[in-house]
Amino acid sequence: MSGKVAVGSDIGQARRAVEQLRMEAGIDRMKVSKAASDLLQFCLEQAKSDPFLVGIPAATNPFKEKKPCAIL
Amino acid sequence: MCDQTFLVNVFGSCDKCFKQRALRPVFKKSQQLSYCSACAEIDGKVIVWDSFTTNKEHAVTMPCTWVMACAYAPSGCAIACGGLDNKCSVYPLTFDKNENMAAKKKSVAMHTNYLSACSFTNSDMQILTASGDGTCALWDVESGQLLQSFHGHGADVLCLDLAPSETGNTFVSGGCDKKAMVWDMRSGQCVQAFETHESDINSVRYYPSGDAFASGSDDATCRLYDLRADREVAIYSKESIIFGASSVDFSLSGRLLFAGYNDYTINVWDVLKGSRVSILFGHENRVSTLRVSPDGTAFCSGSWDHTLRVWA
Questions:
Q1: Could you give the CA distance from residue A8 to residue A6 in angstroms, rounded to a whole number?
Q2: B279 has which bridge partners?
Q3: A62 — contact with chain B (CB < 8 Å)?
Q4: Residue B2: predicted pLDDT
Q5: Could you tell me if A5 lies within 8 Å of chain B, comparing CB atoms?
Q6: Can you give the pLDDT at residue B33?
Q7: Which Pfam families match (chain B) (predicted)?
Q8: A-chain residues within 8 Å CB-CB of B274?
Q9: CB-based contacts of A57, cutoff 8 Å, min separation 6
Q10: What is the DSSP code string of chain B?
């Protein structure tokens, strides 16, 4: 049951909300260009060890079912 | 915001067995389901599987129909689970067949509404929980004591994820108020809040580096938020996708984002390019949960079609 709380109906609640917003507005922000390039760098560095990107040989993959080979 | 679950006597037809009985209404995310007392008593189960052999290793019966959250302890020796019973219980795992796991159950968390998510912190000793009562809480497993509570969401909290670093003290939570909030575990303060989704946020997951997180929502989009830039940096959506995303997870490097949707499919997104890499079919009902294995070789999806599928 997700009801909406009536904001501002209580002065104390409104004051706390403003305080929280002021605090959030005051944090140090990094530029997206720098933050995004860091994410990119991390991703490319880790890509070599990511099994979904690099792929592992079927023989070592524990999830591939091992079927006996039947030669007709 | 629901402070309590209400029990009302209503007569009608049960959603499960369709008999005319006295019903117990159950609320989840403002959807009401009504079960007659016979069906509501049917126990929910928590099962621990061996994913390589598909054997069931452990099974515990929970005294409530819906188990909504479960988590493995970092040591692998215990599991925590909870749901409509408003509690989070910890069960130590034992391979001894003579021991009854339910007997060793330890009730750790108590909320005033359903438990939607739970997660152990870096040790087996603390658990973080999120609840339909709009709060998250940090508990000590041994004593069951509330260590810290996190207030700020305006509606049910549906998901949470802990920051990946060992020294990390933050976690992110997403809720029905469309907000994703980042919290400091020590002070209980909300550090950052993001409100760009257009509907309930069903799932949040940190990027492997810990500097960003992704969220999946009922508005059919997944979004990537950068914590240092303090804003949304990418949206993963397509006009053809109209059903909500119920669960998201990153691959090991963070290049791929796997998202399970209510239209029975799993979409794989390229995180950096913002485009869809692949769409996976196989489930016969909505995909409700999805998790990548810790070594990144496979991921598992759980669905309303009663199956868990491992994709590798």
A1: 6
A2: B267
A3: yes
A4: 38
A5: yes
A6: 45
A7: WD40_Gbeta
A8: none
A9: none
A10: --SS-----EEEE-TTT--EEEEEEEEETTEEEEEEHHHHTSPEEEEEEETTTTEEEEEEEESSS-EEEEEE-TTSSEEEEEETTSEEEEEE----TTS-GGGG-EEEEE-SS-EEEEEE-SSTTEEEEEETTSEEEEEETTT--EEEEEE--SS-EEEEEE-SSTT--EEEEEETTS-EEEEETTT--EEEEE---SS-EEEEEE-TTSSEEEEEETTS-EEEEETTTTEEEEEE--TT--SPEEEEEE-TTSSEEEEEETTS-EEEEETTT-SEEEEE---SS-EEEEEE-TTSS-EEEEETTS-EEEE-
Domain A9-53 CATH class label: few secondary structures
Which residue ranges make up each domain of chain A? 9-53
pLDDT tens per residue across span A19-64: 988 988 888 888 999 999 999 999 999 988 888 888 777 667 766 6
In this complex, which of B176, B230, B310 lies closest to A2 when CB atoms are compared? B176
Distance of CA B217 to the CA centre of its chain: 13
Nearest CB to B212: which of A1, A39, A51?
Answer: A39
ipTM of the complex: 0.74
